[in-house]
Amino acid sequence: MIRHSVLLILMTSLCYALTCNKCYIFEGDDLTEKQILTLEKIANLMHSPDCSEGMDFDTCSTSNNECHKITLTSNLGGHTNQTGSLYQCGSAKTREKLCRIYKKYSVKLIDTEIEDCNISGCEGDLCFVPSNNT
Q1: 29, 55, 89, 97: least surrounded by Cβ within 10 Å?
Q2: 73: helix, coil or strand?
Q3: CA–centroid distance for 66 within its chain
Q4: pLDDT range class, residue 110, cuts 50, 70, 90
Q5: Integer distance in angstroms from the first to the last C-alpha of the chain?
Q6: Per-position DSSP letters for 20-79, written without gaps between them
Q7: What residues contact 58, with CB distance under 8 A and at least 6 apart?
């Protein structure tokens, strides 16, 4: 009986797994070669494609209960700040800590600083639609 209950719970959670976009987009046509290389490093680290080149979708794990839109401002190693967004699965519990983590590791892993970071979450499948109007 317990085995059947556990199996039913697992099947139910798999059937209702949240699906989120998984990609990044930075606005501006004036990106320098260095900034483009930095974006490519970010994409490789995050395993995320550029939204304009085709979106990827991610079936979230059971610990992730919402989709995240992370709006970032950074010079990406150049002289002018650029604004962009990352889209991914996430957790409401860890949302507030995520900007601090991204700021810390952006310096260590890609040698660039994030000037500003804001995260919003939503709870429906593909509830954020990536657009150039970050």
Answers
A1: 29
A2: strand
A3: 11
A4: confident
A5: 50
A6: EEEEEEE--S---HHHHHHHHHHHHHHT--BGGG--EEEEPPTT--EEEEEEEEE-TTSS
A7: 19, 20, 21, 22, 88, 89
